[in-house]
Write a structure and sequence with these properties.
Number of domains: 3
CATH architecture of the largest domain: Alpha-Beta Barrel
CATH class of the largest domain: Alpha Beta
Distance between the termini: 52 Å
CATH topology of the largest domain: TIM Barrel
Mean pLDDT: 95
Strand order of the largest sheet: 3-4-6-9-10-11-12-13
Number of strands: 28
Structural class: alpha/beta
Strand content: 15-25%
Helix content: 25-40%
Length: about 650
């Protein structure tokens, strides 16, 4: 029986174990594609945690029109050989191996500069990101030249010292735009569908790999990342049957030494495969790798929410794949691989699947992690610097912000005391991670980590203690950090005080007991509650003032929003959810809710009304204390601005380093 600690070879490259880091675009490089010191230091930490394993570097563009956002590495010309060599040397010094991921966005392209040429694709089509340009359809000669450019970039990677190359042929990028049948209706050779290829136009990926093999030589490892199934149906994309019977064998014959199995396509209903959000089970793409492994004679890498050390080991031991790739787990804990190999499972800081790392708006300035706020900030945040002036600090509130601050400040040498009005740490995460019949359990990982660290470090905690002005005067702290969280917003509408009217938090804690007919006021913050109620057989009506639903403020990424909207619109529910948009609540009565929808009045019958209009800052104590201790009171987390777990941990970690 193979084990995760067994060595394995990919062509000439020998790896000491079966865990590799999956490719991801960090956004820390300079816009010209050269590695920044920040990026190099981040990879140094990952390399040390990889325990000699392979780091796949994420998006590495080689043509400006295919760069897709800014902040990604480049192998566009000879100058980059030297620039990337600095990064490679750092990784090698830490004992790990590395591979760039050759990427061309095609119609995904969002160039980071106005000087970029027009985007290209297999056909003329609108760019996948709405509102951008129309692509130029590559001519026969241009398509052939594009395959050569992939190969030249791979050769530059080899010359820069990389140990292997990963070819991005998935998720709707340029190569996929040529071989996914729904994206290529060309009538020339680049659209040809030979019998041995099934109904798949495979010339472009085959030629790309053939030319790459010619340039890098027979011994240089070529890893190919594919979507095992685009999960769009046989009309729009390729399926797992296509991949097993035709595509995977053809890629191996063309030069692939290893297949890295992801799934889905960007900005479609299968977008979730790229970073499965909290709603999906662990190992949700495993079946794709298992099936493909049976069809090829090269190593197969499994990926897709493989976040538990025990599951990673099982994948190898049961023969489902030859290697396991982890991405988000290495962000949450850059020692994840090391701890898994050494059997230190209990010491792992686990990913929350919140996908703060996937959200474009959250990646301004580079990728960020809710579980590990220091990720990407290693250059300035690590190692922690001991304070020269220890202070007596009172922390009010044991949610993510308060705990992250307390742990950080304690490690720096401050005398920290934590006060929590309930009987446990975690704050509102306990509610958000336990939505009945909506799988959000991964979010509780931050609570488990904070509880473990607070106990391990011996930070004093006073539970069931609501801090008042009098307690602060008695304790006489040097500094007070208020992390008192938020409160549900309650609209100024007649009837909100009736006994059958609940806040969102109250509802989530007693869903089985609410009435049969439920009106949820707030189609964003109340979306998960509405789905939960409907899955309990309740008749649910969502009332939303805007023209959209399913985009709560705490929900970072597009994939999770898409899935939440899919849950809401599920016609298979016992009672499908009714949605009323552009509607304003006028009055709540004992058995109904009166709405203003445009110029019309509408009445919706209700046994229970749920107010889910978001939360506001609970900053009353902070304001009182500031008046008496100006400059000595700080607010973090929802007490400062109601946002998400990631923003709370960031603020706690930052303030803990500044005081």
């Amino acid at each position: 029986m193979p084990k995760i600690t067994d060595p394995i070879k990919i062509n000439s490259m020998e790896l000491p174990h079966r865990l590799v880091i999956a490719p991801n675009g960090k956004g820390y490089a300079y816009n010209d594609g050269t590695p920044s010191e920040r990026l190099i230091e981040n990879y140094r930490y990952e390399a040390e945690g990889a325990l000699g394993g392979l780091i796949q570097m994420g998006i590495t563009w080689f043509k400006l029109e295919g760069s897709c956002f800014g902040g990604f590495l480049s192998l566009q010309d000879e100058r980059m050989i030297h620039e990337q060599g600095r990064l490679v040397n750092t990784i090698h010094l830490a004992g790990a191996k590395c591979a760039p991921q050759m990427f061309h966005a095609g119609a995904i392209s969002v160039p980071g500069t106005d000087q970029a040429p027009p985007p290209v694709s297999s056909e003329e089509r609108p760019c996948f990101f709405e509102g951008l340009e129309t692509t130029h359809a590559l001519t026969d000669e241009e398509a052939e030249q594009a395959t050569i450019e992939y190969a030249k970039a791979a050769l530059r990677g080899k010359e820069a010292g990389y140990d292997a190359v990963n070819m991005h042929m998935c998720h709707g990028s340029l190569v996929t735009q040529f071989y996914s049948r729904g994206l290529n209706n060309r009538k020339d050779r680049w659209g040809e569908r030979k019998k041995e290829w099934g109904d798949n136009p495979l010339l472009f990926p085959i030629e790309t790999l053939r030319r790459t093999r010619e340039m890098v030589g027979p011994d240089f490892p070529i890893i190919v990342r594919v979507s095992g199934d685009e999960l769009l149906g046989p009309e729009e994309g390729f399926t797992i049957d296509d991949m097993c019977q035709y595509i995977a064998p053809a890629l191996v014959d063309a030069g692939a030494d290893c297949l890295d199995i992801s799934g889905g396509r960007l900005l479609r209903q299968s977008f979730w495969c790229i970073g499965p959000p909290v709603y999906f089970p662990h190992g949700c793409l495993l079946d794709l790798a298992k099936k493909i492994k049976k069809c090829v004679n090269v190593p197969v890498i499994a990926v897709g929410k493989l976040m538990e050390p025990k599951l990673c080991r099982s994948v190898i031991e049961k023969g489902w794949a030859d290697l396991v790739a982890v991405c988000r787990p290495m962000m949450a804990d850059t020692d994840f691989i090391k701890k898994t190999i050494l059997g230190k499972d209990k010491e792992v800081r686990k990913c929350l699947s919140c996908n703060m790392c996937m959200a474009v708006e959250e990646k301004a300035g580079g990728l960020r992690c809710a579980a590990n706020p220091a990720y990407g900030r290693e250059l300035t945040w690590l190692p922690l610097r001991k304070t020269e002036e220890p202070k007596n600090i009172m922390v009010v509130g044991g949610g993510p912000a308060g705990c992250e601050f307390a742990i950080t400040a304690h490690q720096r040498g401050h005398k920290v005391t934590l006060y929590e009005k309930s009987d446990k740490l975690g704050g509102a995460v306990h509610v958000g991670s336990a939505v009945p019949r909506v799988p959000t359990r991964d979010l509780v990982h931050i609570v488990q980590w904070h509880k473990r660290e607070v106990e391990r470090l011996g930070v004093p905690v006073f539970f069931e203690t609501e801090v008042t002005e009098e307690i602060v005067e008695k304790e006489k702290p040097d500094i007070v950090v208020c992390a008192t969280g938020g409160l549900d917003k309650v609209p100024d509408v007649p009837g909100v005080g009736l006994p059958h009217v609940l806040t969102n938090v109250d509802c989530l804690q007693r869903i089985p007991d609410v009435g049969q007919r439920v009106v949820v006021v707030g189609g964003h913050e109340g979306a998960e509650a509405a789905v939960s109620l409907a899955r309990y057989g309740k008749q649910v009506t969502i009332v939303e003032e805007t023209n959209e639903i399913g985009k709560p403020s705490y929900c970072h990424d597009f994939a999770r929003q898409m899935k939440l909207q899919e849950f809401i619109l599920d016609e298979k529910l016992e009672h499908p959810i009714d949605v009323v948009i552009n509607a304003k609540v006028v009055e709540i009565t004992e058995d109904a809710v009166k709405l203003q929808v445009g110029k019309k009045e509408q009445i919706v019958e209700a046994d229970t009304v749920v107010l889910a209009l978001g939360r506001r800052e609970d900053d009353a104590l902070a304001k009182i204390l500031w008046a008496k201790m100006p400059g000595m009171v700080h607010r973090i987390g929802d007490c400062r601005e109601v946002r998400s777990i990631g923003h709370a941990t960031e603020q706690g970690a930052y303030l803990g380093r500044q005081l």
